[in-house]
Amino acid sequence: MPLAATLRHSFLLRALAAGLLVFGVLSLVLPLRQAGMLGWCANVGAYAALLFAYLGDADPDTMRRRAQQLAEGRAVVLTLALLVATASLLIVALLLATRNQGATEQVLSIFVIIAAWFYLHLLFAQEYAHEFWMTGEGLDFPGGEDEPSFGEFLYFAFVVGCTFQVSDATTNTPRMRRIVLLHGMTAFWFNTVILASAVSTVLSLAG
């Protein structure tokens, strides 16, 4: 099945397995809520480590081969990853809103929110890279090479995530613009929730 093959090659399942392992071990010695938060952070850390290990200094042929492996079912994988990230952010935001957390959980909540924010933009950096290497077009990086490194896609993803717009690197296909639109809207929603959570945390600490 195409989706099964995509999941097999995806970093998503391997990172999730690492997060669940950390959660399982820590749940033996910590409250479940704290173990879950640390497990989520481990999941994001493992995903980032896999991403940089495989794509950080990958040559164009490796990037192209990787994109072909994940071609089928890519949208499903991205959707599932976004749902997981959104759920983690909402759960922590709701916990902060109740103001029913100790100091340890408040600190862990901040790390969970930061991890969710980075996870979102790493997902889209990989999505931009895959789209570019599947079609050979979609983004123009001024002053760069015709075959950009993964760092260029990271740059583009975090610019969109921080500013909700493109900067010197520009899109040149409708499909890439739709991906940027989805990224910008999701990032705006994430940042809104993060800002509200930060205000809630400050009020909780002050009160």
Automatic annotation (TrEMBL):
The chain crosses the membrane at residues 12-30, 37-55, 75-96, 108-129, 149-167, 179-206. InterPro entries: DUF1345. It holds the Pfam family DUF1345. Keywords: Membrane, Transmembrane, Transmembrane helix. It comes from the Bacteria. This is DUF1345 domain-containing protein. The lineage of its organism: Bacteria, Pseudomonadati, Pseudomonadota, Alphaproteobacteria, Acetobacterales.
